[in-house]
Design a protein that fits this description.
- Keywords: NAD, Oxidoreductase, Tricarboxylic acid cycle.
- Its EC number is 1.1.1.37.
- One of its GO terms (molecular function) is L-malate dehydrogenase (NAD+) activity.
- It holds the Pfam family Ldh_1_N.
- By secondary structure, the protein is of the alpha/beta class.
- The chain has 2 domains: 140 residues, Rossmann fold; 168 residues, L-2-Hydroxyisocaproate Dehydrogenase, Chain A, domain 2, CATH 3.90.110.10.
- Helix content is 45%, strand content 19%.
- A hairpin with a 2-residue loop joins β10 and β11.
- It is globular, with a radius of gyration of 19 Å.
- It starts with a strand and ends with a helix.
- It binds 1,4,5,6-tetrahydronicotinamide adenine dinucleotide (TXD).
- 1,4,5,6-tetrahydronicotinamide adenine dinucleotide binds next to α1 and α4.
Length: 319
C-alpha cells in the first residue's frame, strides 16, 4: 500500500512540530507548505535528517506551491498571523480570514478528498471560513481545540489529585476562547467524578473552580511566559491524535470543533463538541445531557462564536 500523504499548511512553530511528530510516527510522507520562502524547505531538510537517528522512513518536503499538496489524505492548517501588540481581535480576524481564503482555495484545487484539520485562531470562526472557502463537505473539515483544552484540564487535575494523567478523562465543550466550558460533571478520574474525587482528597470546590479558570486561560498563560508566540507542542500533538483517528478509522470520540446542526440547539455552527472521528471524517456528533448551569455557560460560548462569525460574514464581502 502506498504511503499516506500529510500536507501541513503553515510551517511555523506548530507546523514544524506536526511534521516531526507525523514523521516519527511514520504516518506517511509529509509536505510542509508556507508562503515564506525557504522556511518550509529548510525545516523539511532539517527534519529529514532526524530520520537516520530516530529510525523513521518518511519523505519530508518543503514547498511554496499548492500543487505539491496534490492528493493529500490529511491537511492540517496552521497558516496565519498571531496577534501583535496594538492589534484588535477584528484585525486578526480580517487578516486570517484572507489567509483561510487562500488556503481553502488551494485545498479545493489540489486536495479536495482530504480530511482537513484547522488550528488557526480564532479557531471556531477560521474553521467555518476554511470550510466555506474550500467547499469540502462539513464532515471533512474540523477544528482542533477541545483535545488541547481537555488535555490542559486533565494536566491540572492530575497535578491537583496527584494521580497519573492517564487516569484523568477530562471534558471541555464550547468555543476555543475564554468562554470555553470545562464540564466537571463529565470529567472523571478513572470513572470517579471530579466532585467525588475532590471530597476524597479534601480539595475544595473553589480550588476546582480555580482549575477550571486556569484551563480557560491556559493558552494565555503560555503566551505570557513565551512572550514571542503561543503554545505549540501540545497543540501539535492534539491535532496528530485527530489525524491518526481519521487515517486509522479509529472511531475515537474526541472533543473537536465540528459542524453542529440541530444538536445542542444549534443551527449550523462550528463549535467544540464530542464527535466520533473515523474513515468518513466526523461520523457523529454526540449530544450529552447538561445541567442548566452548563447549558447557560455553553450558550455564552456559542454566542461568542456566533458573534465572530457575523464579523467574518461582514468582512467576507471585502475579500
Ligand atoms: O488550540 C488551538 N487551535 C491553537 C491555535 C493553539 C495554539 C495556537 N493556535 C493558533 O495556531 C495560533 O494562534 C496561530 O493562528 C496558529 C499557528 O500557530 P504557530 O505558533 O504555528 O504560528 P507561527 O509560528 O506564526 O506560524 C504560522 C505560519 C508562519 O510560518 C507564516 O509564514 C505562515 O503561517 N503563513 C502562511 N502560510 C501559508 N499561507 C499563508 N497565506 C500564510 N500566512 C502566514
Amino acid at each position: 500500500m502506498a504511503r499516506k500523504k500529510i500536507a501541513l499548511i503553515g510551517a511555523g512553530m506548530i507546523g514544524g512540530t506536526l511534521a516531526h511528530l507525523a514523521a516519527k510516527a511514520e504516518m506517511g510522507d509529509i509536505v510542509l507548505f508556507d508562503i515564506a520562502e525557504g522556511i518550509p524547505q529548510g525545516k523539511a531538510l532539517d527534519l529529514s535528517q532526524c530520520g537516520p537517528v530516530e529510525g523513521f522512513d518518511a519523505k519530508i518536503t518543503g514547498t511554496n506551491d499548492y500543487a505539491d499538496i496534490a492528493g493529500a489524505d490529511v491537511v492540517i492548517v496552521t497558516a496565519g498571523v498571531p496577534r501583535k501588540p496594538g492589534m484588535s481581535r477584528d484585525d486578526l480576524l480580517g487578516i486570517n480570514l484572507k489567509v483561510m481564503k487562500a488556503v481553502g482555495e488551494g485545498i479545493k484545487a489540489h486536495a479536495p478528498e482530504a480530511f482537513v484539520i484547522c488550528i488557526t485562531n480564532p479557531l471556531d470562526a477560521m474553521v467555518w471560513a476554511l470550510r466555506e472557502f474550500s467547499g469540502l463537505p462539513h464532515n471533512k473539515v474540523v477544528g482542533m481545540a477541545g483535545v488541547l483544552d481537555s488535555a490542559r484540564f486533565a494536566t491540572f487535575l492530575a497535578w491537583e489529585f496527584d494521580v497519573s494523567v492517564k487516569d484523568v478523562n477530562a471534558f471541555v465543550l464550547g468555543g476555543h476562547g475564554d468562554t470555553m466550558v470545562p464540564v466537571t460533571s463529565y470529567t472523571t478520574i478513572n470513572g470517579i467524578p471530579v466532585k467525588d474525587m475532590a471530597k476524597i482528597k479534601g480539595v475544595s470546590e473553589s480550588r476546582i473552580d480555580e482549575i477550571v479558570q486556569r484551563t480557560r486561560s491556559g493558552g494565555g498563560e503560555i503566551v505570557g511566559l513565551l512572550k514571542t508566540g503561543s503554545a505549540y507542542y501540545a497543540p501539535a500533538t492534539s491535532a496528530i491524535a485527530m489525524a491518526k483517528a481519521y487515517l486509522g478509522d479509529q472511531k475515537r470520540m474526541l472533543p473537536v470543533a465540528a459542524y453542529v446542526e440541530g444538536k445542542y440547539g444549534l443551527d449550523g455552527l462550528y463549535v467544540g463538541v464530542p464527535a466520533v472521528i473515523g474513515a468518513n471524517g466526523i461520523e457523529d456528533v454526540v449530544e450529552i445531557e447538561l445541567s442548566d448551569e452548563e447549558k447557560g455557560n455553553l450558550k455564552v460560548s456559542t454566542d461568542a462564536v456566533e458573534e465572530l462569525l457575523e464579523a467574518c460574514k461582514n468582512l467576507d464581502g471585502d475579500l
